[in-house]
């Protein structure tokens, strides 16, 4: 997936949250999306292809 597709999916999710859940749901979905983005960027930077690799690295 490229950045445009991911942006489209995030926009649709935020739109549904705002329409059906109101402003509080919009903020919750937006903040959880931001947390997911940060975790994904951190995993990409660390070079872990799977969460299992991340946890195996800590055991060594």
Structural class estimated from helices and strands: mainly alpha
Distance between the termini: 33 Å
Strand content: under 5%
So what's the oligomer here?
single chain
Q: What's the tally of helices?
A: 2
Largest sheet: none
Share of helix among residues? over 70%
Give the H and E element order: HH
Principal-axes geometry comes out as elongated
Q: Radius of gyration from the CA trace?
A: 15 Å
* Low-confidence residue ranges: none
DSSP summary, beta strand count: 0
Report the mean per-residue pLDDT as an integer.
Answer: 76
Structure explained in plain terms:
This is Small integral membrane protein. The chain has 60 residues and is an all-alpha fold. The chain contains two helices and no strands. The model has no long low-confidence stretch (mean pLDDT 76).
Helix-strand blueprint:
Elements: H1 3-46, H2 51-59
